[in-house]
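hiii, so i know i said id send this last week but things got crazy w the move. better late than never?? heres the sequnce for the chain we talked about at the cafe, plus the structure i predicted for it. fair warning i was half asleep when i ran it
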Amino acid sequence: MEILLYIAAFIAVIAFVVLVYYVVVTLKTTRETLSEVTETLQSLEKQVEGVTSETTQLLTKTNRIADDMNEKTSKLDTLFDGAKGIGDSLKDFSYSVKEISNAISHTSREEQEKTAQAVKWGAAIVDYVSNRKNKKEK
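okay and structure toks below
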């Protein structure tokens, strides 16, 4: 009967050793997995920093474009105020330009590409008004 106790104890020790072995293997695998997760998170953090940097640059550029548009809008307003004698058609044109400028200012904050197009329109309007003024002076 005593032998059965020794055999049972021996089997229990072997089972415990096997259990410890698999726990160690599992812990090593878990450590490797956590190491890979850490590397992935570090890579993701670098990518997020890059996106944040690009977003900041884009916002800065958009703000500069919006400021430029506001400056051009104020110049156009001054020009239209000085040209009141041209007539009702020019007043309607001035009102349209103000609405376009406000729309451009609003959309320039949202999309850079649309803002670039608005800058082109502003330049075209300035050219048009200059040409009209030059033709009137001649």
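btw The CA atoms of residues 97 and 125 lie 8 Å apart. thought thatd interest u
miss u guys!!
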